[in-house]
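pipeline stage [seq->struct] | target=ABC transporter ATP-binding protein | organism=Streptomyces heilongjiangensis | residues=242
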Amino acid sequence: MSLRLTDITLTYPDGDARLTALDQVSLEVPGGSLTAVVGPSGSGKSSLLAVAATLVTPDAGTVTVDGTATTGMTRGELTALRRHTIGIVFQQPNLVPSLTAVEQLQVMARIDGRRPRTARNRAMELLDAVGLADQAGRRPHQLSGGQRQRVNIARALMNDPTVLLVDEPTSALDHERGAAVVDLIARLTHQQATATVLVTHDRTHLTAVDRIAEVHDGRLRLPARTRDSAPPARTGGAPTAP
């Protein structure tokens, strides 16, 4: 299980010319490892995440998700790939105001056709994993910012993705809650064996990540791994609550 970007180039119209957002970017993220992508605003971080999520098609290069190259896939095929293989944690949780925490997760499973009881059991398992089993019946306005972000993370894992993409998860949180959320993402990555990319401009919470890649002007610089241990195999069991 892995995510691989190979020689990705992405440009956008800019008047009569084109602006290069990503310039021959290559990145491989093995299953069970967390790579943080850092860089200033406008450097290409969000573009990289959008390409990895198959939401934007690059001008050149290949995106390979869990051994499957996405080049040439139809829109429907890409939608199915995202539904079954890719979990996305958006910067803002965007939870449905009228739904409880457990219902936020159950909706994802219903879209995928899972039985209600199976969906609820999986939802409760994940809420327990993020430390919110006792908040399952609360609606978004009854949760703190950090709790809403944890529901957001659990929701992204509901359909057992092999790739997890996380966009600025600490932007609306204070330092302590931001650090706790990144630690949670790292723990879930290792225990669920997802290939995880976390995009952020904030370097202060990255002690738990396996590797840090830097993006500047659309080019990626990838230092050596920050951790020596190899990623663990996927166990399939419920992660331990933080």
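stage status: PASS
auto-comment: The radius of gyration is 18 Å. Helices lie at 45-52, 75-85, 101-111, 116-129, 145-156, 175-192.
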